[in-house]
């Protein structure tokens, strides 16, 4: 039984041997741009890549790369809604190990800055407001969270991928 997947770049990604994997920003951007937030239940496709770009703009400049990369594991694991994730400790363990591995590869601190966690909630508030406007039920996790300053419109996957890569390049000063 295989414990790996084939990535966009043509490399196999092993869930059991993380150290052996080839992890590229292009695979992360491609994967995240094709993963829909909210388990696909938003009124239109809204990618994790777009969410990550948004978070990178909601944090102080020194935390922007951490904000962009905060959900990078989802390029390989998919986006599991938090309520379901709480019920699956093995998934959370793998997610944590992969987060540490990706952080090491991209020279990031594996402990997310508090600003990223806060910006993630601000983004969630904007997503609720702009993509679920008919939902009048308050989300407990958003109590006391600042309003998202941006009006959100969903991007198609290619636009999300290109904007993710552009933002990564801006933040790492890597020019092709």
Describe the structure.
- The protein has one domain: Orthogonal Bundle (Hypothetical protein af1432), CATH 1.10.3210.10.
- 48% of the residues lie in helices and 3% in strands.
- It has eight helices and two strands; from the N terminus they run E-E-H-H-H-H-H-H-H-H.
- Strands 1-2 form a two-stranded antiparallel ribbon.
- The chain is globular.
Largest sheet: 2 strands, antiparallel
* Fourth CATH level, the homologous superfamily: Hypothetical protein af1432
How many structural units, i.e. domains?
Answer: 1
Strand adjacency order, main sheet: 1-2
Low-confidence stretches are none
CATH structural architecture: Orthogonal Bundle
Oligomerization state: single chain
In sequence order, what are the helices and strands, one letter per element? EEHHHHHHHH
Helical proportion? 40-55%
- CATH fold topology: Hypothetical protein af1432
Strand content: under 5%
Q: How many DSSP helices?
A: 8
Question: Which overall shape is indicated by the principal axes computed on the Cα atoms?
Answer: globular
Attribute tags:
single chain, 176 residues, Hypothetical protein af1432, two-stranded antiparallel ribbon, 8 helices
Annotate the secondary structure layout.
Elements: E1 4-6, E2 12-14, H1 25-33, H2 48-58, H3 64-69, H4 74-77, H5 82-85, H6 89-105, H7 114-131, H8 157-172
Antiparallel strand pairs: 1-2
Nutshell version of this structure?
The protein has 176 residues and is mostly helical. Helix content is 48%, strand content 3%.
């Amino acid at each position: 039984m295989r414990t790996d997947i084939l990535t966009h770049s043509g490399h196999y990604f092993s869930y059991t041997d993380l150290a052996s994997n080839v992890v590229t920003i292009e695979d992360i951007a491609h994967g995240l741009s094709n993963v829909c937030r909210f388990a696909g239940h938003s009124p239109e496709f809204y990618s994790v890549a777009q969410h990550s770009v948004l978070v990178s703009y909601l944090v102080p400049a020194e935390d922007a790369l951490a904000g962009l990369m905060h959900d990078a594991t989802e390029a390989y694991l998919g986006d599991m809604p938090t309520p379901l994730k709480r019920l699956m400790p093995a998934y959370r363990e793998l997610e944590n190990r992969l987060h540490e591995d990706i952080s090491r590869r991209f020279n990031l601190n594996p402990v997310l800055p508090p600003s990223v966690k806060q910006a993630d909630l601000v983004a969630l508030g904007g997503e609720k407001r702009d993509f679920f406007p008919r939902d009048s039920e308050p989300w407990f996790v958003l109590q006391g969270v600042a309003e998202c300053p941006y009006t959100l419109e969903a991007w198609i996957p290619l636009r999300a991928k290109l904007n993710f890569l552009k933002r990564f390049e801006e933040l790492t000063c890597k020019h092709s």
